[in-house]
Specification:
Elements (H helix, E strand, L loop, with lengths): L4 E7 L8 H8 L7 H19 L6 E7 L7 E2 L5 E10 L5 E3 L5 E2 L8 E4 L14 E7 L9 H16 L11 H6 L13
Antiparallel strand pairs: 1-2, 2-8, 3-7, 4-5, 4-8, 6-7
Helix pairs in contact: 2-3
C-alpha cells in the first residue's frame, strides 16, 4: 500500500537569514525606496534556497501527515530538526491518540531525521489520509547558524531577482545552486513507505 503524505505549515518563520540591511549592502542600495520590494525578495530567495536544499533556515513549525505508519520509521521532510512536538494517530476506532515520547526516538543530527519506534506502534486507522501526524520544528536559531554558503546563495539569488525583474531563461546550474548543493539533504518520496 502506498503511503500518502502531506506537509502543512503550522507556524512560519519570523525572521530571515539575511536582514534588510545586509541585503541592501549586498545590492549596494542606499535609498529606502525599494525596502518593501527587497524585503519580499529576501523571503522569496530564502524559500528558494530552502526548497532546493530541503533545509529550513529559520525556525518553522510543520505538521507532517501520513496515511499510515511507514516501515522502518517516519523520515521527516526537512532538516535540521530542532524538536518533535507531538506524534498523533487515529486508532482502529478512528479516535485520535497521542504517542508517548517514551514510545519513539530520533537523532536530531541525523539527516534526514528518522523517527523510530521502541515497539511497533498500534495500527492506525486505514481510511484516513491523515492517520498519523507529526508536529515538528525545523530550522536554525542562535547560537546555531545556517551554513555560510547558504547565506551567500540567498544573496546571489536576491541579486539576480533584483536586477532581472522579468522572467528570463536561466542556466541549469547557477552560482547560488553551486553554493547550496553541498548542503542539500536528500529526502526521497520513497523514504516513507
Amino acid at each position: 500500500m502506498a503511503i500518502t503524505t502531506l506537509i502543512q505549515l503550522e507556524t512560519a518563520a519570523t525572521s530571515n537569514v539575511v536582514t534588510l540591511q545586509e541585503a541592501k549592502d549586498h545590492l549596494r542600495v542606499d535609498s529606502s525606496d525599494d525596502d518593501t520590494y527587497i524585503s519580499t525578495l529576501i523571503v522569496s530567495a530564502q524559500r528558494q534556497v530552502e526548497s532546493y536544499t530541503n533545509r529550513c533556515l529559520s525556525d518553522t513549525t510543520y505538521h507532517f501527515r501520513l496515511s499510515a505508519y511507514p516501515k522502518g520509521g517516519i523520515v521527516l521532510p526537512f532538516s535540521p530538526i530542532k524538536s518533535i512536538t507531538a506524534i498523533k494517530y487515529y486508532d482502529s476506532d478512528n479516535a485520535e491518540q497521542t504517542l508517548s515520547s517514551d514510545d519513539y526516538y530520533y537523532n536530531i543530527y541525523e539527516e534526514p531525521c528518522t523517527i523510530r519506534w521502541e515497539e511497533e506502534p498500534s495500527e492506525a486507522y486505514e481510511y484516513r489520509v491523515d492517520a498519523v501526524s507529526v508536529e515538528f520544528v525545523a530550522g536554525y536559531t542562535s547560537p546555531e547558524v545556517p551554513p555560510p554558503g547558504l547565506e551567500h546563495a540567498i544573496k546571489l539569488l536576491l541579486s539576480d531577482m533584483y536586477e532581472q525583474r522579468v522572467d528570463v531563461p536561466r542556466e541549469k546550474f547557477t552560482s547560488w545552486k553551486s553554493l547550496s548543493y553541498p548542503e542539500r539533504v536528500f529526502h526521497a518520496a520513497t523514504n516513507n513507505r
